[in-house]
Amino acid sequence: MLNIAMAQMKVSPGHPDKNAERMLQMIAEAKQKKADVIIFPEMCIPGYLLGDTWEQPAFLRDCESYGADIIRAAEGIVILFGNVAIDWEKKNNDGRVRKYNALFCAQNGRLIAPDNMPYPFIIKTLLPNYREFDDTRHFFSLQKLAREIGTTAERLLSPLTLDIHGERYRIGGLLCEDGWSDDYSLTPLTELNRHHDIDFFVNISASPYTLGKNEKRNRVFGAEAKAAHTPLFYVNNIGLQNNGKTIYTFDGSSTVYNANGRVISVCPAYEETLCCTELAHIDALPEVTQEHAPSIAHIYRALTYGIREFLAGIHMKKVVIGISGGIDSAVAAALYAKIISPENLLLVNMPSVFNSKTTRSLSEQLAENLGCQYMIVPIQESVDLTKEQLETLPVTNLADKSAHHLHVSSFVMENIQARDRSARVLAGAAAAFGGGFTCNANKAETTVGYSTLYGDQSGFLAALADLWKHQVYELAHYLNDTIYAREVIPQGIIDIVPSAELSSAQNVDEGKGDPIRYPYHDYLFRSFIERWQKATPEDLLTWYTQGTVEENLGCSPGLVQKYFPTAQAFIEDLERWWNLFSGMAIAKRIQAPPILAVSRRAYGFDHREAQDGPYYTRKYRELKAKLLYHSDTLPTGASPSF
């Protein structure tokens, strides 16, 4: 009777020493539980998202060395684990040493080779090269190896054959993307099942969390197990990994699928654990009832886990948050208050003459509700001093000794306020407090650069920058109703119009706020980045002529007519935001803090950008000309048709 342990471990990227040490501990634990086989995640020794650390031969040698420690530990137990495999005699296409993303199997202190592989390990067949994944930059795939040695990947794909307790078992080994093969010409699991008698499949993964991904994986992997009529063990890691600008949580959620494709065991998300399953009993085990928590509950868990792990990783124990009386900073404060102790959380309100008594009062009420530290630092005096200095101190042309003075416009004054708050007050307060200060931007603001460089865009982490504004509001309600079970975020903050309060034109008491109409623009901006086939102005005008804008964006019906009574108004709005999204906002995003990812497409390395400026296709220009011509000849409220 085969007892199989799934080792859902926390992987420390770039630290093979720590990972190998933890693996040895879990191997000892598995032996105590009488496990016959223990399965670790993909790249569990080096970590997965390492940037160009893969180009360091010394690091690669260390990964090999720690891998050898794990192989030696395979006495009385079979160990399957992920590591980088190196062929020091061959090169990748970039001229560097040959590297494979590999699955190793060790028994009795030595490696067990797959039946048809030229190496004593399984090589990842399908290398993802989209979103945050960059496998083809560093690793050689099984398909490329097959071409190199004059055969096919189908022939090289082969099981691991093991003798355990006198019984022969054939294991179909897969690495992460090998199971997500819908858009590839080769399906590794199908090929293994077609040519070999497989007892069970193993998919070792390093799969970052994305909202809705687990549900999709259960559909895909469940269907694969059912089609093969063979159990499948999916083993994923937990922890936090990044590629510089984008931070990813790994939730684990390791799962066992029976031969009918049903989920019969799931490891708890974001918890390091060892889950054991008897192979012979899999088909008799009851199906696990899947948790149907609302999406915002999953987002909350990913954010709090990610923030906690990020703070631990940079050894930061104290946090400063600038609070304005608005929704974004309030949600950020309520999140951090669940992660660090009240004495280590400092909320700072920084009013100017444009901040209403309403928002000042709401800020103080929020701090009282959270029970954390609070201070008020008025900025008007320093802002006025900056304006006075810039306008009265001469600018001298040293070539001819002539002098002139700068003029500070009302728009520049808005920027000065934002920068005074962050670069002077929050940066100084964080240094004095012994911590760092947060960036509270949401995804809508990040999309169009509705923030100030070196001002409110600054901070050590942008924890909310992958949430649209409506998700921030949803999170506020979830924090009040479920997490705290009381009103910590004052209802007034939820009800008040979103506003930067940087001028009299943004007076919240008069209902004046941001230029972004979030019920519509959240979804417009989302179409620019999160659609797999990304939308452009051409798509938007096509939908506009068809009357299907709201349907394609996913926003509430009737918003286009409500906000844009004419084609000209619709086009002006579209071009305003497209110009910002593909213009100055890119420069701002490049300089933004790292973003904690939860969506199907986050800014940073997940959405690679070039500063090329806005572009409008030929068809867009043709549609625009027709719309504007017809709008001049149509009655008010009538829709054009071409």
TrEMBL record:
Residues annotated for deamido-NAD(+) binding in this entry: 415, 445, 588
Superkingdom in the source lineage: Bacteria
InterPro entries to which the protein is assigned, alphabetical: C-N_Hydrolase, C-N_Hydrolase_sf, Gln-dep_NAD_synthase, NAD/GMP_synthase, NAD_synthase, Rossmann-like_a/b/a_fold
The EC number(s) this enzyme carries: 6.3.5.1
Pathway it works in: Cofactor biosynthesis; NAD(+) biosynthesis; NAD(+) from deamido-NAD(+) (L-Gln route): step 1/1
Ranges in a coiled coil: none
Key words, A-Z: ATP-binding, Ligase, NAD, Nucleotide-binding
Name of the top EC class for this enzyme: ligase
Biological processes per GO annotation: NAD+ biosynthetic process
Catalytic activity: deamido-NAD(+) + L-glutamine + ATP + H2O = L-glutamate + AMP + diphosphate + NAD(+) + H(+)
Binding site for L-glutamine: 130, 207, 213
Gene Ontology cellular component terms for the protein in this record: cytoplasm
Residues annotated as catalytic: 42 (proton acceptor), 124 (for glutaminase activity), 176 (nucleophile)
Pfam families: CN_hydrolase, NAD_synthase
CN hydrolase domain location: 2-284
Database matches in SUPFAM superfamilies: Adenine nucleotide alpha hydrolases-like, Carbon-nitrogen hydrolase
Gene Ontology molecular function: ATP binding; glutaminase activity; NAD+ synthase (glutamine-hydrolyzing) activity; NAD+ synthase activity
Gene3D superfamilies (alphabetical): Carbon-nitrogen hydrolase, HUPs
Entry binding sites for ATP: 322-329
HAMAP family: NadE_glutamine_dep
Record family assignment: In the C-terminal section; belongs to the NAD synthetase family. Belongs to the NAD synthetase family.
Protein task: Catalyzes the ATP-dependent amidation of deamido-NAD to form NAD. Uses L-glutamine as a nitrogen source.
Protein name: Glutamine-dependent NAD(+) synthetase
Organism of derivation: Selenomonas bovis
Gene name, Swiss-Prot/TrEMBL: nadE
